[in-house]
Structure formats: structure tokens, C-alpha cells
Amino acid sequence: MGRRPVSRPAALRCALDGTLRVMERQIRHGEELEMKRIPKWTAIALIVVGGVGLAMNFSNLRGAEAQVDRTAAIAPDHVQQAGSSASALAAVDNASLQGDERWQEVRKRWEFDSGAFQNLSLSSTDDVHIEVKTDADTDYLELRGVVSKEAAERTLKTTGEADGIKLDLTGPSRIRLISFGSGNNEVYLTLGLRDADQLRSAEFSIGSGTGDFGDFHAGRIEVDLSSGQLKADRLSGDDIALNLTSGSLDVNELIGASQIKLSSGMAKIAALEGDSVIRATSGMIDVTQRKSGNLDAEVSSGKIDIRTAEDFKGVYDLRVTSGLINAPESPGTDGDTIKARATSGMITVKQ
Description:
Blueprint: H1 8-28, H2 40-61, E1 79-81, E2 91-92, E3 103-112, E4 119-124, E5 127-133, E6 139-148, H3 149-157, E7 164-169, E8 186-192, E9 201-217, E10 220-273, E11 276-289, E12 295-307, E13 315-326, E14 337-350
Parallel strand pairs: 1-3, 4-7, 4-9, 5-8, 5-9, 9-10, 10-11, 11-12, 12-14, 13-14
Antiparallel strand pairs: 2-3, 3-6, 6-8
């Protein structure tokens, strides 16, 4: 009687069990691991098992990711009069954190004299959502979210100034071996202003995550994002600087003089008003003008797509070292200039 053939799954289990037993014995006796050639399917199984193990461990590294109620009431003892020496509470007990002591839900409100709130600075390593309301009797800033215990302690001690506030919500770096979602906690900021145009300066530094702006205006806006996504319905100001190391920028309306820097990724502006300078090392620049203005776009390696405003009557100044240019003749000989440069890639202009 011949030997009964062994199925591939059974053979795989035997080979895998044998390999794991040898490795376990070597580790237990302090021996140096001896890496021998193993069958292909055994190697694949080891990779799968290791990946599952990393995923299981990663779920413990990602943080609480608690669901935050962005409309939750803020208790009276969590209300801070900006500039006052007395600190209001910040931390909130929340069962949704499931006993994870690394993270803390915070709710706090800083109140300013009407029209006095003019400067805002925020640093965070999580996903940040900004909302502005202009129906308030007094100026205020409300914070709701989940942050590290260190950031919660700093929030408790932050009293603010009479004309603004500087918030540091950064926490310890996290290990991100496998990503299911962003892995970040959520931070919600609500600004209550007497006048939508009263902010003089707004600075945001977001380590790795999402910067989500609705309709936001300040005399000067600066956003620094290490990696992730910057998105906005409308950003407007006299001077706007958006800096991304890697990721994507998606703005529906960008109004005012702007400077955009992107190391790698994509910058998309659906409606641009005002002069703009855009620099990308690699990636794609996609811009639609709503009103005529000077545009200076440059990418080392990638693609530039420009749709000009109906009232643009100026000059195209386009150059590619290696690649392709697809554009009509300039509609005029002076006035606003659309300048585009690509070392390697493609430039497309449409009227």
C-alpha cells in the first residue's frame, strides 16, 4: 500500500510547527538563532503570523480613539477667564477610554472680552478640527477631545492672555507599524468671535494627522503639517502660508496672498483668489483660478494643472526641462503672469 499523500495545508502546518519549535528551543537555551533555508510556504506563513501579531499588538499602541461628543456641554468649573491667574479644570472622566491611562478626555472653555480674541497658536499631534461661530455675545475658545495625559496637564495650566491663547496639545510619539484608520485621537476647537474678521494671527503646527478647517479667516495664517492631510472649505487672509512635508492639501477656496510648500504629495485648490507661490518637490499641483492673479508654480518631478480665471488677460511663462507642455497662446502681453516650471514632468494650462 502506497503512502497517503499529505495535503498542502497539513504539510504547511507541520513545517511551520517544526520551524517554530526549533526557534523556541534556541531562544530558551540562549542559543544563537540558526536561520536555515525554509520552504516558500513556510516563509509565507511566518510572515502572515508575524503580521497578525503586529496587528494585535498595534491595536494596543494606537491609543484610545474614543468617540468625542463635539457638542458636549462644558461644565462651569471648566470655564477659564483668559488671562486670569486662576486655572479652570480641563480633564473629564470618560468610560469610553476603557481604563487606558495614557489618554485623557478634555473639555475646557476660555472666555475673552468681546472683540479681544485676536491671536491663536496651536500645536498638536492628533487630528484637529476647527470651527468658527460668529453669533457669540463674548469671544471664546472651546476645546473638546482626547489627548495625552501630558497634554491634559498642560491644558489645565493654560490660562491664556487677554488677547489670545497658545495651546500645546502635543503628546509622545507613537509607533505606527500598521495603520487601520489614522490611529490618531480627535481634537475639536470651536472659536466664538464677535467679528469673523477679527483674528490677527493664527498658527497651527500639526505633527502627523489631519488639519480640518471649515470657513476660517485671519490676517495671517500659518499651517505646518508634517504628514497627513490639510483640508478646508475656505481659508482667507492677507498672508497665508501652508507647509506640508508629505501628504495632501485640499482647499475649496483660498483667498489672499499665499505661499504653499509641499515636499511630496498633492496640492489642490478649487478656487484661488490672490497672488500665489506654490513649490512641490514631487507630486501634483492642481489649481483653478477664480480671479486673475499672479501664479508661480514649480515642481521638480510631477505634474502641474492650471485652469485660468475668465478675467485672466496676462502672460504664460512655462518651462519644462524634461517632459511636456500643453497650453494655448498667452491671451495678452502684460498684466498678471502665470509662471510654471517642471524639471521632469508635465504642465497643462486651460483657459
